[in-house]
Design brief:
The complex is a heterodimer of chains A (about 190) and B (about 160). Chain A is α/β, with parallel strands linked by helices and about 190 residues long. Chain A has 2 domains: about 1-30; about 40-190, Oxidized Rhodanese, domain 1. Chain A is about 35% helix and about 10% strand. Chain A has helices at about 5-25, 45-50, 85-95, 105-110, 125-135, 155-165, 175-180, and strands at about 80-85, 100, 110, 115, 145, 170-175, 185-190. In chain A, the strands form 2 sheets. Chain A has a 5-stranded parallel beta sheet with strand order 1-6-5-2-4. Chain A has a two-stranded antiparallel sheet with strand order 3-7. Chain B has one domain (about 1-150). Chain B has helices at about 1-10, 10-35, 35-45, 50-75, 80-100, 120-155. In chain B, helix 2 crosses helix 3 (about 35-45), helix 2 (about 10-35) packs antiparallel against helix 4 and helix 3 packs across helix 4 (about 50-75). Classes of the chains: A alpha/beta (about 190), B mainly alpha (about 160).
Chain lengths: ~190, ~160
């Protein structure tokens, strides 16, 4: 028979150690005890409900050099819309901020030139979003969010978080960093300058 | 029959099964303790827990693993540690099986939290292999429990 007090002691010691180690961890390794993510069990439903949708274009196809950001109107009714690599390139040319949702260590290994790190899985993410506010960034202006492409959901999760903070124009670059690299577009390594 | 039973419960086998099981749990815990966000991401990908519970699980589970591992390696509370390790293995097998049935490929997150993206078919094959591996580890649990039951019966 399992001695219940021993099992309780093991679990209690584990909780105590977890508390101490989390407290001692740096911001990149620390976790809030209560996760602030979309319900993991329903994420596939959420993603399909907000399936990648073409960004409405006012007068000309997005991605055309010189395309205005007016082509990307705010979308307060949904957290994000998807954009292609061509659109992402065009937006970068217009100086639209790029937000990298991947872990800091991955960001340091290589990221889209000029992108800012907002790792959704790290405790610094909310501070990063608040910083956007402090810098006076217009909540209705476009923000390009990306991660590792493919099945990566980090960019969608970051877009949802931004949406909850009041940012109404997150554009998810679904191809993400692998697509950008494949196109031979400018990348940077290390911390942002 | 009797010799088979005595081989299964031999002290030679028992000490190795106990230390092996403890080492597996301790080795699995270390990368998770060093990088809780990566483990939280792995747990999230299993799509079994509500988003609010993911972080707490990522913080506490590795420490349970390390305490179980320490108990088995150092030889205290062996039976309790073996029961907890068995329960955790069954939990892992169950989580993998549910996702196999769903066709949702996940990285196991058992020892390596930074696995590169791989094709879906490869991930699903790995999940099957991991279930077989966990079943083999469950044999170690059974061995440790059976020996400790014997010791209890003949003890003072």
């Amino acid at each position: 028979m399992v001695r219940l007090w021993q099992a309780a002691a093991v679990i209690g010691a584990a909780i105590f150690c977890a508390f101490l180690s989390n407290r001692a961890a740096g911001p990149e390794r620390r976790l809030p005890w209560v996760g602030d993510y979309p319900d993991a069990r329903t994420v596939p439903v959420l993603l399909s409900a907000a399936a990648p949708t073409a960004v409405p274009s006012a007068s000309r196809p997005p991605g055309v050099p010189g395309a205005s950001t007016n082509e990307y109107p705010p979308h307060p009714d949904r957290p994000w819309v998807a954009i292609s690599g061509d659109q992402a390139l065009s937006l970068q040319g217009q100086g639209i901020p790029f937000l990298d949702a991947r872990r800091t260590a991955v960001y340091l290994e290589g990221h889209i030139a000029g992108a800012r790190s907002l790792p959704i899985w790290e405790s610094t993410v909310d501070d990063g979003i608040k910083k956007l506010y402090e810098e006076g960034y217009d909540v209705n202006a476009p923000l390009v969010v990306y991660c590792s492409g493919g099945d990566c959901e980090d960019s969608h999760m970051l877009a949802e978080r931004l949406h909850r903070f009041g940012f109404n124009n997150a554009l998810v670059y679904t191809g993400g960093f692998p697509d950008w690299e494949k196109r031979g577009l400018p990348v940077e390594k290390g911390a942002p300058r | 029959m009797k010799s088979e039973r005595s081989w299964w419960r031999s002290p030679w086998l028992s000490i190795r099964a106990q230390i092996g099981l403890g080492a597996i749990f301790a080795a699995a815990a270390v990368p998770k303790i060093l990088d809780p966000p990566a483990f939280a991401h792995m747990i999230y990908n299993y799509r079994l827990l509500p988003g609010s519970a993911v972080n707490a699980a990522a913080l506490v589970l590795p420490w349970i693993e390390i305490w179980v591992g320490a108990a088995l390696i150092l030889g205290f509370w062996k039976r309790t540690a073996a029961w907890i390790s068995g329960a955790m293995l069954l939990l892992f097998v169950g989580a993998l099986t549910v996702n196999l049935v769903r066709g949702n490929p996940v990285n196991c997150g058992c020892f390596d939290l930074h696995a590169k993206d791989r094709p879906k078919a490869e991930l699903l094959a790995d999940m099957r292999w991991t279930i077989v591996r966990d079943a083999a580890i469950l044999l170690l649990v059974a061995q440790v429990l059976s020996v400790n039951r014997k010791e209890r019966r003949i003890g003072p």
